Amino acid sequence: MKLPISSLLALSVLLAPSALTAAGVVNLFGWSEYVPQAVLDGFTAETGIKVNFETFASNEELLSKLVAGGGAYDLVQPSDYAAEVMIRRQMLAPLDPAKLPNLKNIDPALMRLPHDPAGAYTVPYMTGTVGIVVNTGKVHEPIRGYRDIFQPKFQNRLVVLNDSRELVTWALYAQGLAANDVTPANLAKVRPLLAEWVKLVKVFDSDSPKTALLNGDVDIGVVWSGEAAILWTQDRKFQYVLPAEGAHQFVDVLAIPAKAKNRDEAHAFINYILRPEVSRLISAAFPYTNPNLAARKLLTPEELANPASYPKGGRLETFRDIGKTATVIDKLVTDLKSAL
Ligand code: SPD
Q1: φ/ψ of residue 325, rounded to 5
Q2: Which residues face 222 on adjacent strands?
Q3: What does the pLDDT read at residue 2?
Q4: Is the model more confident about 250 or about 340?
Q5: Ligand 1 mean position to 133 CA, how many Å?
Q6: How far apart are the CA of 100 and the centre of ligand 1, in A?
Q7: 22 pLDDT band (50/70/90 cuts)?
Q8: CA of 318: how far to CAs of 19, 200, 277, in Å?
Q9: Which CATH number goes with the domain that contains 334?
């Protein structure tokens, strides 16, 4: 029996999966306050690929979920040292450079860093620092480093990141040690100092530490540079200081888990955000240091002059994988906080 062409067409529409299903899905696990919704929507509008987006607030949260086998993610967004852990544990799939032509836009100085020496598994998303924000309308004394702010006179006037590795690092720096000198002896050395520091803090917040500063709930923060950059754009009274004793510099990356099912879609997403005009949207919403040199050319002079986004100088260090000591750090900080 021959069916008329009109019936065949109608049948094919009924049988065809919807454009969205056919185009697929990408399951992204990324930092909160880091990927603009407009970028996710733009990607879906152009490719038909749906993005399921879940967020985390620390590398340790990301790692513990993935190590426990939780979540079926196609794309994750660890920081350098967490990517290093994942590469060591064979938890990442090698990237296919042929599917990432826009990788050419990334600053070559940020490729092949120690966490991924062959540049095989990770693509820089944003970089940044952790520093001190001072509301200079309220705090008039000079603030140069951690020892200036963790003082009894600032009790209940501080917001800090809710991140054990960060907290321990600031105490290491305050004692003249390096960020990756995380030995049992050094942890014992910093414990009494940290025990005093946590008592001074009013708010622990890694998602949006800027909020407590903007609301006037606190006057000083130790925060991600992108948060400090937003504060500076709101009001120049919020000044960013890279602590003199030393500051953490991070490179957050995109990577594909070894168990990812939708690798083509994940590559398509990475290549999309590597486009200069897309990457500049990310900078506009979350003004960290953009590693995409072609996107940087599209930033305004004001964006490039933001002292938190593009700080000058500073004694900067990146974190490295510290193996099992990460658990010791977590327990140390959790114990100190629960004693409050
Ligand atoms: N809200 C986005 C925060 C991104 C911070 N990434 C750096 C983590 C380094 N420990």
Answers
A1: -65, -20
A2: 132, 160
A3: 43
A4: 250
A5: 16
A6: 24
A7: low
A8: 43, 26, 28
A9: 3.40.190.10
Give CA 26 to chain center in angstroms.
19
Ligand 1, atom 3: closest residue by C-alpha:
31
Say which range, 17-21, 182-186, 251-255, has the weakest mean pLDDT: 17-21
- Tally of domains within the chain: 2
* Triad 300, 305, 307: Cα angle to 5°: 140
Average pLDDT over all residues of the chain:
93
Ligand 1 pocket (Cβ < 6 Å) reads: 31-34, 59, 79, 224, 250, 252
Domain of 177?
Answer: 128-249+307-338
Same domain, 187 and 146: yes
Higher-pLDDT residue of 14, 225: 225
Residue from 28, 56, 79, 282 whose mutation best tests the ligand 1 pocket (most atoms within 8 A of CB)? 79
Distance 31 CA to ligand 1 centre (A): 7
pLDDT exceeds cutoff 50 at 12: no
Residue 151 burial (C-beta neighbours within 10 Å; 0-12, 13-18, 19+): middle
Distance 252 CA to ligand 1 centre (A): 7
Residues 139 and 287 in one domain: no
pLDDT tens-digit readout, 60-93: 999 999 998 877 999 999 999 999 999 999 999 9
Q: By the 8 A CB rule, do 74 and 262 touch? A: yes
Same domain, 186 and 243: yes
